[in-house]
Amino acid sequence: MDIIFDCPNCGQELAVDSSGAGTNIECPACGDTITIPAGPQNPPDSRELSVPNLTASPITSSAAAKVEKHLKVPVRSTPAEPLIAKAKPPLGARAVGDKQVRIRTIRRAACIESGHDNFDEVVSKFLLEIGETNLMSIHPVGYTYFDVATQKMLTDYGAMIVYRG
Fold it and tell me: How confident is the model over 82-141, as pLDDT tens digits?
């Protein structure tokens, strides 16, 4: 039989198996450590005390036909903590002061024009645009991609630039 009691701190109704009597638990609503009382504080429902009818159908004595227990919702004077936290904004949109942290990845394959490798020029031009004071870090990037012209997997490199802007 379950022990049904209210949290002394927030008033949340809790139900615990009788084998846990006298042990300490943390209230799932407020986080306060409480001791489970020795016996049920709320009187059991009269339907739970009745002797089962031996001629009753198996459907009426199944788990689906048992009495529903309704839990009380705690009433608080302060705003409650959300149970599901909002997702954090992506790193590219996280604010640092009045500017946001952003990421730009420049791939070498995207910098090749008319057979000329312009990777260094593209990276240098971008770094000049953001300025040295806004530059946070530069990381080398290795990646593999499928080249449609040669029908092969090619390995290439690039740069990931983290900056404020």
Answer: 667 777 666 555 554 567 889 999 999 899 888 899 999 999 999 999 998 899 999 999
In the predicted model, what is the mean pLDDT of residues 135-163? Answer: 92
H-helix segments, 7-150: 46-49, 119-130
Query: For the purposes of burial, counting CB atoms within 10 Å of the CB of 29, is it exposed (0-12), middle (13-18) or buried (19 or more)?
Result: buried
| Interstrand relation of 24-26 and 13-17 (parallel, antiparallel or unpaired) | unpaired
First to last CA, the chain: 62
Cβ neighbours of residue 18 under 8 Å, at least 6 residues apart? 1, 2, 3
How far, in Å, CA of 2 to CA of 157, rounded?
63
Same domain, 102 and 157: yes
Side-chain half-sphere CA neighbours of 48 within 13 A? 11
According to DSSP, the β-strands at 112-113 and 33-35 are: unpaired
In a domain, 83, yes or no: no
Say what the pTM is.
0.41
Boundaries of domain holding 43:
2-65
Helix (H, G, I), strand (E, B) or coil at 150: coil
